[in-house]
Design brief:
about 300 residues, Porin, elongated
């Protein structure tokens, strides 16, 4: 591991090394706009138990805003807020087992992240001499989500027992403990949090379109630290337990399988070894904040 040590270094040399280090981090003095404020708009989608491999499947609208600080021509830091929707539906799968499972969900995702951008080409926001660059980015994010599922009113039969749903609409799934979370019969299954963490990473392309204005496009994937974006992870719970400790709606939304008369209790409902992902693909538009002029020309 590389370590920097100034022990035994003459005082003038220490000052020189420190000045060189901060010059590398804070960039070149010729940068036209060190900071940018911007907006984003595009689509979001999800990968998990209800959409295993397809990208850009069931895309939904997304939007956000960001602040970018340009350290130098190749490195930028970005604080970003994004809001979008994700959705999954077994009925739209080509897999027979998924169609039979018949689960579905939708959720909003609100994310705040800190990212580092690395430009492949020298790029200065607002400078026509550096017209464009592709870039990669990576970072760390925190997000909120809330999976919901739609159900029609009526009587549903699960494992020979009838369950009644009185009201039509979307129901939040986490409070219903659809896999037995929070029930006395499944003490090892705790209710999951609706706040989790993600690791944004991806690629983009940006270019100067006018004085101080930067336009770009980027695609970023987000592996998460939760397997419950879709409320599906482990095995089927006993619907009678869900009725007793929650409601009939919990039992109905826990097992919506079709084409089978056998009990699904303790059978695999999801895959807890793989966490869920979501993605944002957006166009970006930012305006550069001009640097303050130095009071003394000698420092320009």
């Amino acid at each position: 591991m590389l370590r920097l040590s100034f022990c035994g270094t003459p005082q003038p040399m220490k000052k020189y090394l420190l000045l060189s280090f901060f010059a590398l981090i804070h960039g070149l003095p010729s940068i036209a706009q060190k900071s940018e404020l911007g907006v984003m708009g595009g689509v979001s989608f999800y990968n998990g138990e209800l959409n295993r491999k397809k990208i850009f499947f069931l895309p939904k609208g997304a939007f956000g805003a960001f602040y970018r600080h340009n350290f130098n021509e190749h490195f930028s830091g970005k604080l970003c807020f994004l809001y979008g929707s994700i959705e999954g539906n077994d009925a739209l799968s080509a897999n027979a087992e998924q169609i039979q499972r018949n689960l579905s969900f939708k959720s909003v995702v609100a994310e705040f992240s800190a990212q580092l951008e690395i430009n492949f080409l020298p790029f200065i926001a607002g400078d026509s001499k550096t017209p464009f660059t592709p870039y990669i980015f990576g970072g760390f994010g925190v997000f909120k989500f809330n999976p919901k599922a739609f159900v029609d009113p009526g009587t549903y039969t699960i494992n020979g027992t009838n369950y009644t749903v009185a009201n039509v609409g979307y129901y939040a799934l986490m409070p219903l403990g659809t896999e037995g979370q929070g029930t006395t019969a499944y003490p090892d299954r705790k209710k999951y949090s609706l706040t989790s963490f993600s690791i944004p990473f991806g690629i983009g392309f940006k270019f100067n379109v006018a004085s101080g204005i930067v336009f770009g496009v980027e695609w970023g994937m987000r592996p998460t630290f939760t397997d419950y974006l879709d409320d599906v992870s482990k095995t089927y719970a006993e619907p009678i337990v869900l009725r007793a400790e929650y409601t009939d709606v919990a039992a109905v939304l826990s097992d919506r399988s079709i084409g089978t008369t056998e009990s699904n209790v303790d059978r695999q409902r999801g895959n807890s070894t793989n966490n869920d992902w979501y993605s944002f693909t957006v166009a970006t538009l930012s305006y550069g904040i001009k640097n303050k002029k130095a009071k003394c020309a000698a420092y320009q």
